[in-house]
Amino acid sequence: MSEDEFIDDEQAEQNVQEFIEEHGTEGVFVVYFRQFIFRFIMQELKSEDEEVEDIGTQLHLDVSEGDEVLKVKREQMLERCEVWARDLVDDLKDDEVVGEVIESGDFERLDDEDVEERVENAMDEKFEEWENQLEEFLEEVE
After folding, report:
1. Nearest to 98 by CA among 46, 6, 32
2. Model-level pTM?
3. How far is residue 126's CA from residue 8's CA, in Å, rounded to a whole number?
4. pLDDT per residue as tens digits for the range 62-81
5. Alpha-carbon distances, residue 73 vs 56, 69, 80, 140 (angstroms)
């Protein structure tokens, strides 16, 4: 994959195809949900203290080691989010309708009402299942 910050559409398409060849369409879903969960956690961290607007400032409040600690915490969050994303994708693969979408890579079907509803329900179930883990993880990160 290209390391360029700015790439054209053709290079972007090539990068996506290389990623799918290496990780399959399931990998696309894992990355998507990892980022979704990561953003959710970041939002939760930001909302913890209304006086602190950005996550960098908030994480700096309890650390004295500097930017390296922020990098480590971010990597820890991404690793944990990937575990949860893989868990979610495994459950989605078991769903008759969503599993076929993941298997076929027919991303356009993600807009189908039935598929959206099934994904949303699976996410709700997983967030309930992960609730205690999320709270513990957020406490560790803060």
Report:
1. 32
2. 0.73
3. 37
4. 545 566 767 788 888 899 99
5. 11, 6, 11, 9
pLDDT digits (tens, 9 = 90+) for 32-57: 999 999 998 888 776 665 554 555 55
> What amino acid is encoded at 71 in this protein?
K
Note whether 20 and 27 are within 8 A (CB).
Answer: yes
d(C-alpha 19, C-alpha 25), whole Å: 9
Q: What's the average model confidence in pLDDT over 105-109?
A: 90
Task: State how far the Cα of 13 lies from the Cα of 128, in Å rounded to an integer.
Answer: 36
HEC-encoded secondary structure of 75-103: HHHHHHHHHHHHHHHHHHHHCHHHHHHHH
The three-state secondary structure class of 26 is: helix
Task: Give the residue carrying structure tokens 């969050």.
Answer: 77
